[in-house]
Design the sequence.
């Protein structure tokens, strides 16, 4: 079955080579800049300390969480019709989180110090402490779960327990990641107790986009070459779920925008009116990265077509990358207590080194992805299910 | 132990920035890394246009949001040292979360693009782990309290000149620069202030001059709605911060 996986052949090797080269070059570029110029090679400043490297980490970490949540459908909630996508979801979640962490490490002043300073000091009041704890646990559980699947142990009691623990870990990790921003009352653009919900929704949206794109990529963008379990997932409930989370994301962005524009609060209003909606990139990203994909997935005839699914996945990648970027930067553009030293909103756009980090993270992800497709059977399903499949007759989807 | 507090009288402050300069010399900070700064604000339009200014050290908050967010306890409030908030440069990982969480914008990550050229860090390259090593340096160094010239990759901020005030005699109510016995222990910005707009003393001592000034002259804390409860109080007219308005906003002034 897995013979159809083009990543196992020369196309995969080509992509592997290409991404490995991009990875080495971008890593070299970033390291050169960090060694020679330090963080002065970034465009962030003491007035706007978190820039694109942080939003890239956010994007990756949440896509990973989204994939983890999607994998919970079959593995925790027993939606057996989605077994075909479970293993790939877990694998993608693992490697995308690793790539995000690599980006974050190069953004920090002292990444190695973090390894001892966070556990030894137990600052349990800090949301960042808990994010570290939960994402570390998440990483571990993902690895463990993947290892269980590799050994064919899909349904044992241990596997199910790990599955539930992992599901909770994902919720806690992405939830605390949201609260890192959401609890900052001095930054009213972020201050919002419901941010975890927004993060869950957008996490599933970006996770879904990743799952769709990389599943299709593995089979040369030809759905008929996929195993039946996967085909039925992509023609059955998944596109509907994709439509739903896209719609809810649009809704969430919409109500945040309306609240912000209605508010008199200068630190919220000006962000929406004079930064976000004043930026053509932001407007285009909402339009073509969220609204258009949602409308496409809304039409029952369109949402099952493989080209549309891949297109929507690519659009949502861009839309959510921008969403993360504008969310992180938007919370800081209003100068805090700077007087007329800050004449206007704080200007920021990523430097070459910051783009280098984003590219490095993506290239790392692609490299690990092709390696995964080559060395594992990511489309595997539990043996008893595999045995019931009759070739050429996809099982009718039930959701 | 004392609880150190600062009182700044805006009716006396002339906005001369002598404090900013004294702080930069005392603590060897970089251009732009103004642990102490004087912020200027303009508010309103003709005929009510106003120019305001206020000196801004770290407020050494009683409920310091920077401390709560720091994942490594590198930022900590030391009640043994008069409630000063320090950054331990041996522990800081440079995540910059504290800079996000401080409502007063008083924290610096000096590993950034230089404010002025030539970059003084290139002129005096760092030695012994310092980010830069100028020929004149304050000999006081204590990385566990963020005193001295910082290494790369950490956050720096005002220390209320702990290296000075910590040497003051036990139990003293105020550190007054006019008292020859005490002048060496006064924070650099307070000591240098020509119109004597700054006062420094023990907020826990009912007899202290700083407490009397706050009580009698209606001392206020800035951005009080943030709940951070600064240990820095302001006196006089103009102790308020106009809201931010960007130029060319869609919704005018
Ligand atoms: S002013 Fe900022 S840095 Fe200083 S103690 Fe308060 S929150 Fe912390
Ligand atoms: S930058 Fe340093 S002091 Fe600030 S929160 Fe991070 S570890 Fe703590």
Sequence:
């Amino acid at each position: 079955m897995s013979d159809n996986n083009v990543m196992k052949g020369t196309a995969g090797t080509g992509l592997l080579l290409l991404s490995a080269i991009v990875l080495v070059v971008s890593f070299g570029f970033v390291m050169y800049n960090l060694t020679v110029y330090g963080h002065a090679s970034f465009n962030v400043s003491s007035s706007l300390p978190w820039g694109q490297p942080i939003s890239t980490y956010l994007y990756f970490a949440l896509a990973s969480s989204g994939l983890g949540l999607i994998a919970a459908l079959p593995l925790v909630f027993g939606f057996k019709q989605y077994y075909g996508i479970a293993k790939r979801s877990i694998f993608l979640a693992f490697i995308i989180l690793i790539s995000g962490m690599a980006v974050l490490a190069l953004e920090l002043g002292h990444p190695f110090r973090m390894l001892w300073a966070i556990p030894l000091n137990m600052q349990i009041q800090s949301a960042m402490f808990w994010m570290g704890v939960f994402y570390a646990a998440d990483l571990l559980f993902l690895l463990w779960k993947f290892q269980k699947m590799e050994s064919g142990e899909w349904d044992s009691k241990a596997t199910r327990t790990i599955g539930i623990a992992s599901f909770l870990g994902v919720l806690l990790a992405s939830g605390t990641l949201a609260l890192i921003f959401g609890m900052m009352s001095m930054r009213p653009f972020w201050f919002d107790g419901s941010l975890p919900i927004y993060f869950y929704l957008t996490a599933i949206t970006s996770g879904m986009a990743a799952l769709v794109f990389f599943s299709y990529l593995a089979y040369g963008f030809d759905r008929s070459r996929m195993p039946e379990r996967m085909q039925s997932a992509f023609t059955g409930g998944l596109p509907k779920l994709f439509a739903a989370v896209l719609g809810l994301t649009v809704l969430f962005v919409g109500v945040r925008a309306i609240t912000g524009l209605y508010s008199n609060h200068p630190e919220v209003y000006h962000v929406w009116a004079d930064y976000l909606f004043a930026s053509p990139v932001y407007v285009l990203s909402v339009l073509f990265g969220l609204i258009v994909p949602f409308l496409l997935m809304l039409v029952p005839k369109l949402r099952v077509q493989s080209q549309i699914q891949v297109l929507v996945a690519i659009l949502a990648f861009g839309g959510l990358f921008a969403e993360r970027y504008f969310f992180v930067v938007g919370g800081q553009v209003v100068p805090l207590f700077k007087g007329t030293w800050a004449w206007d909103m704080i200007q920021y756009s990523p430097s070459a080194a910051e783009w280098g980090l984003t590219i490095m993270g993506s290239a790392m992800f692609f490299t690990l992805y092709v390696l995964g497709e080559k060395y594992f059977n990511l489309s595997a399903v539990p043996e008893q299910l595999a045995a019931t499949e009759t070739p050429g007759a996809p099982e009718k989807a039930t959701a | 132990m004392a609880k150190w507090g600062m009182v700044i009288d805006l009716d006396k402050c002339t906005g001369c920035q002598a404090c900013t300069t004294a702080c930069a010399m005392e603590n060897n900070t970089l251009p732009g890394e103004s642990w102490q700064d004087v912020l200027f604000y303009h508010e309103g339009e003709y005929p009510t246009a106003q120019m305001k200014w206020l000196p801004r050290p770290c407020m050494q908050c009683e409920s310091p949001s920077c401390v709560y967010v720091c994942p490594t306890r590198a930022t900590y409030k030391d009640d043994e040292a008069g409630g000063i908030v320090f950054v331990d440069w041996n522990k800081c990982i440079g995540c910059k979360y504290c800079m996000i969480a401080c409502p007063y914008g008083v924290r610096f990550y000096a590993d950034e693009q230089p404010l002025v050229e030539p970059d003084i860090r290139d002129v005096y390259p760092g030695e012994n782990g310092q980010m830069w090593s100028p020929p004149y340096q304050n000999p006081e160094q204590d990385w566990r309290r963020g005193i001295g010239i910082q290494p790369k990759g950490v956050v720096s901020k005002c220390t209320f000149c702990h290296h000075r005030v910590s040497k003051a005699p036990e139990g003293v109510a105020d550190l007054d620069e006019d008292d020859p016995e005490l002048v060496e222990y006064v924070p650099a910005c307070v000591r240098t202030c020509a119109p004597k707009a700054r006062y420094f003393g023990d907020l826990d001592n009912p007899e202290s001059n700083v407490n009397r000034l706050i009580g009698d002259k209606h001392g206020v804390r800035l951005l009080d709605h943030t709940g951070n409860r600064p240990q820095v109080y302001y006196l006089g007219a103009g102790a308020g911060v106009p809201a931010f308005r960007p130029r060319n906003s869609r919704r005018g002034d």
